[in-house]
Amino acid sequence: EPFPNSEVKRCCGNDSLGVALRQNSSMPGLYIQLNPLALNTAWGFLFILYLVFGLIAMTQELWDLRKSILEGRYHDALVIVDELELMSRKSYIRNIRSFLIRLIIHLIKNQVEQRLTNSWVASIEGSILEIQDLNLQDNKTSYYLKPGEWEDLLDTAYGAAIKPASAEIMNGLYTPKRLQAMVDKSVIISIAKDFLNLTYTNTEKSLPSAIDEMLRDLPGGQEWEEGN
Asked: What span, in angstroms and rounded, lies between the C-alpha atoms of 179 and 117?
């Protein structure tokens, strides 16, 4: 008895990743006919790389990669793979930057207002946990940004954090220019680095406790811990 088409797609297709590599998929043009060439080491290696990159959209690079593999132009395929890897790294770093900005906004608020609230603690801790998760590559041993590679990103994130911080501190009392003159940037960057270092020395499970220990040393940290 023939299987329903929906069952065939569910079992054999790969639509949930945005790209289906089998003939029964609903996305035309990406069907790859497996043949003896797939047994070739070079082909197999490139085919695996083709799958690994989480093909979400049919970009020109992906079409070029498919064509290069099918035509046996493996050097060209590897060049495209390098480009895709760079694109992936940039995407992760862009997301890391957004959480780094959020972290710095709250560190600026803490320095200026000399207090710490549950809401700020949640934002600080949440940002650091997200940064740890995003920065750790899939192999669980490598990082997109190593401990000594944060300087430029921290500087950029600090600059981007000033304006939103000025809108939140004392209900917008200070202009961005005045706030920038008030804040000790070197202290903010130093504290941010200390928090980032925790992401390398702690597991996902132990990181929240390590963050709480550092939070106690911030202005208003003791009062926050005691609930005052």
From this structure: 20
